[in-house]
TrEMBL record, chain A:
It is found in: Cell inner membrane; Cell membrane. Belongs to the binding-protein-dependent transport system permease family. HisMQ subfamily. The chain crosses the membrane at residues 20-48, 60-83, 193-214. SUPFAM superfamilies: MetI-like. The keyword ATP-binding does not apply. Coiled coil: none annotated. It is a multi-pass membrane protein. Gene3D superfamilies: MetI-like. Keywords: Amino-acid transport, Cell membrane, Membrane, Transmembrane, Transmembrane helix, Transport. This is Amino acid ABC transporter permease. The keyword Membrane applies.
From TrEMBL, chain B:
Keywords: Amino-acid transport, ATP-binding, Cell membrane, Membrane, Nucleotide-binding, Transport. It comes from Rhizobium oryzicola. Coiled coil: none annotated. This is Amino acid ABC transporter ATP-binding protein. It comes from the Bacteria. GO terms for molecular function: ATP binding.
Amino acid sequence: MNLLNTFFNLRVLWESLPQLLWGLITTIEIGIVSIIAGLIGGLVLAVARLYAPAPGKLLIRIYVDIFRSIPLLVLLIVVYYALPFVGIRLSPFASTVTALGLVSAAYTAEIFRAGIEAVPHGQFEAAAALGFSNRHTMSDIILPQAIRIVIPPLTNNCINVLKDTALASVVAMPDLLKQATQAQALAANPTPLIGAALIYVILLWPMVAVVGRLEKHLSKGRR
Amino acid sequence: MGTLISIRDLRKSYGTFAVLHGIDLDIAEGEVVCVIGPSGSGKSTLIRCINHLEGFSAESAITVDGIKVQPGAALARVRAEVGMVFQSFNLFPHMTVLRNVMLAPIRVRNAAPAEAEAKARDLLARVGIAEQAEKYPGQLSGGQQQRVAIARALAMEPKVLLFDEPTSALDPEMVGEVLDVMKKLAGTGVTMVVVTHEMGFARQVADRVIFMDGGRIVESGTPADIFDTPRHERTRSFLRAVLNH
Ligand SMILES: Nc1ncnc2c1ncn2[C@@H]1O[C@H](COP(=O)(O)OP(=O)(O)OP(=O)(O)O)[C@@H](O)[C@H]1O
Ligand SMILES: [Mg+2]
């Protein structure tokens, strides 16, 4: 009973709920902006890697590898605490979205590359033989086929980005986690943290379930 | 009739492995040329150089309708004039048969969609699959898919059609329907270059038969020349092998 009162105190939860929901909104804002930036960046990188001259290809590969190696927390702290020394001062929101977007673009680029490579070579040849430009080859022929393949891993990546938004709390962003820790301090009770954890699960569980179903569906191979 | 395709000293190698050893060939407008030869002799590579699906050595020169085949802006013009039909069809699986046929004229020739559709339906009727227009390629038989591929190539109103073993991936009972379409086509005066193992087709339809071996043209002539009085021993042994298999 005592345990329940400590970790799942309904009164504390009820009182902190508005604060947690404000945090949730911030979390979702960070997530959506980062996901969109990552998607656009990743698609551009993947297509550029296909058509760029050799030095460009190499640069993109280096970018992709670096931003998949660097821990997101380290990158975020560099962006927020180190860049001001060279005169680049980003707000907590901009810092978080920059760090998340850069990393998400790297993963997304790899996902799109794999998707594009999974399209049979004959499709590129048929498009080329008909005289399609590179742009139309991509937009009409290749990407519509690659999209089916990349939807599950892309959704997975979105889940990761949403989870990683919690790191924003280290740069004083009032996201869900930050609001929960503040509410915990105020109430001198850990229930808001449990509440935050539950909200993350409620937010992400459906997406996790959808990925699972999509993967099953696509592996059945409707091609 | 004028020369449509001119090939001069065509050389191609993969690394140090030479696949084509200097091929010279002129193809006249309206001519139907069949290319025969053993596996690995370079037949596919030869016709894939014509629309630059394969690059080739810098000393070599190919022109199509007077346009030099080389990477760059002019290549799109060459490819618009050169249709290609592949062994494995390579239809676009995510769009209907109709859209497969009408898309390239819209995207490459800026055709109006309504006109492109009307022409596509017309072409599908010509290759005998008008009723399948709204289906997806995966729902068609191999023979039907290859006929769609021919219609798709024709929709660009190319000056020349290249075929790379168009019937080799088909079940035997479907070979005939595709060859029939190609025979009809040959009768309409389109220039055709056909890599094929169908000797009956070559004999009946070709204006000229080219026998390749080891990356060279060994012998070329009328079907009667090649099939009845081959001059080279290699041609004779190849024909013996394929005709008595
Ligand atoms: N991408 C490649 N890399 C290396 N060698 C290749 C490549 N493509 C083709 N070759 C080689 O080039 C030679 C000619 O190939 P090509 O496909 O033109 O022959 P082909 O006459 O069309 O044969 P087939 O009747 O089997 O289709 C072959 O020896 C083949 O192994
Ligand atoms: Mg071949």
